[in-house]
Amino acid sequence: MDTTPSATDRAYRFTKDAILTRHYAGGDLLSEGEIATGVGVSRTPVREALLRLETEGLVRLYPKRGVLIVPVSQAEIDDVIETRRLVEGFAAERAAGEGDEARGALVSVLTGHLSDMRAATEAGKRAFVLADREFHRAIVRAAGNQVLADLYESLRDRQLRMMEEGARTPERMRTSIDEHRTILDAISAGDVPAVREAVHRHLDTAGAVLGARR
Questions:
Q1: What is the reported pTM?
Q2: pLDDT digits over 131-160, tens only?
Q3: What are 35's strand-pairing partners?
Q4: For residues 163 and 132, what is the distance between their CA atoms, to the nearest angstrom?
Q5: What is the per-residue DSSP string for 98-134?
Q6: How far is Cα 11 from Cα 42, in angstroms, rounded to an integer?
Q7: Cα dihedral across residues 174, 24, 72, 138: positive or negative
Q8: Measured between alpha carbons, how far is 76 from 57 in angstroms, rounded to an integer?
Q9: Is the per-residue pLDDT at 2 higher than 70?
Q10: In the beta sheet, which residues pair with residue 68?
Q11: Which segments does the entry list as coiled coil (predicted)?
């Protein structure tokens, strides 16, 4: 079976990755030709890929004018942070309330992700963002609720684009590591109220940083 991606799939993946990593920044107005040149395909598969991205809310198509990369809005930031508070707050509380063996296993995983975050402060913003995402994903998955895990995964693209924006400075990276350490310590101690407060404080700070950088 041929598993080679189609030209449309290649154009879709290329353009989406460029948007999520902010190579194509919010507010940029591009042409189909520019994207086609970047991917190395004709304009037809690019046009099909852009229609898919438009349904995801990442681009807006203007005939004869070009392709607008939709900026991250304050409303979107607020909605994503609110949803993350609900999902991650619940998941972290459940994790902290587990028995010693289950908590210990999760703490071991989270410690590894935290080490990756520390290393990534030198490796660059992209590596830091990915390590951060794995830390939070591990907590959500540990809750054992597949519906919540699926909901969290559905947010990951929006989170990635926002986090690329919010993790700009080394100072913010270091502060974020401290906040993750507090979450980890609360889970390790089995302290449900403390982990709830730590998760909410971390996400509120992230939301404030994202809003301030718009």
A1: 0.79
A2: 999 999 999 999 999 999 988 887 877 777
A3: none
A4: 9
A5: S-HHHHHHHHHHHHHHHHHHHHHHHH-HHHHHHHHHH
A6: 10
A7: negative
A8: 11
A9: no
A10: 29, 60
A11: none
The rounded distance, in Å, linking the Cα atoms of 130 and 151 is 18
Q: Cα–Cα distance between 23 and 17 in angstroms, integer?
A: 8
Where are the strands (E) in the chain, listed by range? Answer: 29-30, 59-62, 66-69
Q: Dig out the tokens for 131 from the structure.
A: 């390590």
CA 187 to chain CA mean position, Å? 22
Q: Which domains does the chain have, with CATH numbers?
A: 7-69 (1.10.10.10), 74-212 (1.20.120.530)
How far is residue 41's CA from residue 13's CA, in Å, rounded to a whole number? 13
* Residue 59 φ then ψ, to 5°: -135, 165
Q: What is the mean pLDDT of the chain?
A: 90
Reported as a pLDDT band with limits 50, 70 and 90, residue 181 is very high
Q: What is the pLDDT of residues 85-138, one digit of tens each?
A: 999 999 999 999 999 999 999 999 999 999 999 998 876 677 888 899 999 999
Closest residue by Cα to residue 53 from 32, 84, 74, 38: 32
On the 0-12 / 13-18 / 19+ scale of CB atoms within 10 A, 5 is exposed
Q: Which two tokens stand for residue 30?
A: 């591009």
Beta bridge partners of 59: 69
Tell me how far apart the alpha carbons of residues 103 and 195 are, in angstroms, rounded to a whole number: 13
